[in-house]
Amino acid sequence: MILNYISGWTSAAESKMKDLTQSPLSSIPSTEEFSWISSLTPLGALVGPYIAGPLTSRIGRKWTLLASSVFFIASFIILIFTNTVAFVFVARILQGLGVGFVMTAQTMYVGEIASDECRGALGSFMQLGIVIGILYVYCVGPYVSFQSYQCYCLIIPIAFVATFFFMPDSPHYYIQKGQEENAVKSLKFLRGKSTEGVQQELDEIRATVEESMKNKATFRDVFANAANKKAFIISAGLLTFQQLSGINVVLFYCQSIFETAGSSLKPAIATIIVGAVMVFSSGLTPVIVDRLGRKVILLFSAAGMTLSLALLGLFFLLDHNKSPIAESIKWLPIVSLIAFVFVYCVGFGPLPWAVLGEMFAPNIKPVASSMATSVCWIFGFIVTKWFSSLQDVIGSYGAFWLFGVFCAVAFVFTLTLVMETKGLSLQEIQDRLNGRK
């Protein structure tokens, strides 16, 4: 849940900054400044993985995750006292750095502590935590002052530090550092078993880590063999299409989209409904992912997003042309966005991160995860920064149709290239990538 408020923060904050009676700023930010407020977080998240990746090997996955809270806490303290757009920019960059830390270390941590039977379900819980947080800020943001909004957001990273501090690090990390006693303690805690009960899994982890640590990985090694290359294409490709679906535009500008569409519901209420649907749909994934498999769910998600965005674009086209039909279907933006976030949160929200956490061998995982995460946030920055400009050129309908085209391409990519990993151990995944049965 450490990422929760970041994705949805802009939705309520933008409305407050546009109203000088609520804004702490001396003037209303320009359209260009608002685009930077939205896009600086992905830009910070682009840099974060290159710091977090090496840290996961040096200080561990756990302490890298705890370190991310420093950025979040600092950012909200700045926002509580800010009175200029420049400090908002600084805060958003810090949030982005924190996001980069979390997305790099969390996928590794979850992929390594989970058993083979529940790794997909546990990996998809990340999305559930994110959308619970999004619903949290959607519910709180419209109804409190700007400063109080930041205080409510500040609670989350403080609570995270207070609880996660007592968790063990990954047994893979302990084995890498030669701390076998700590690895045994970690596995006993995670599995709820005795020393004898975790011995077989410990031996498997030791063999996997020792095999992968024979050669220290560099950025070049990500493309040094066919297995790593294929794993990177799958992981980076899924994360790229996750961003090109336009999800950050929906989350960052949710209230603005409903205001522009002239929805029959109050924008704040419609936004809360969208958040609630995201929580419900994200709760389904842990239940079904290890039954149906990653690939089937990703295909369903891509197809559903394509259709939803096509309908959303159709409404904005009718509205742009002042068609009387648009007046009679004011409900369509709500239905389309609800359908979009439902299928996104079931598939392309959680599963690209779950796949990233299980695709790479331990020695190359920090490097490869940093690179794949950075690719994700490059496209996240591009989409959020230039969405307003894209709207000016091709209209809202054209922008949403373009996102729909990307989702259709994501369907083809998943169908042809993505490998099913349901029920496979991390070593079995490596064997498949290397062409071994």
TrEMBL record:
Transmembrane parts of this sequence: 34-51, 63-81, 122-143, 149-167, 231-253, 268-289, 296-318, 330-355, 367-387, 399-419
Molecular functions per Gene Ontology: sugar transmembrane transporter activity; trehalose transmembrane transporter activity
Keyword Transport: yes
Keyword Membrane: yes
A Gene Ontology term for the protein's cellular component: plasma membrane
UniProt main location, coarse: membrane
Membrane protein topology class: Multi-pass membrane protein
Top-level taxon in the UniProt lineage: Eukaryota
Localization per Swiss-Prot or TrEMBL: Cell membrane
Domain Major facilitator superfamily (MFS) profile, first and last residues per copy: 1-422
Keywords, sorted A to Z: Cell membrane, Glycoprotein, Membrane, Sugar transport, Transmembrane, Transmembrane helix, Transport
PANTHER family: GH17672P, PTHR48021
Similarity section: Belongs to the major facilitator superfamily. Sugar transporter (TC 2.A.1.1) family. Trehalose transporter subfamily.
Name listed for the protein in its UniProt record: Facilitated trehalose transporter Tret1
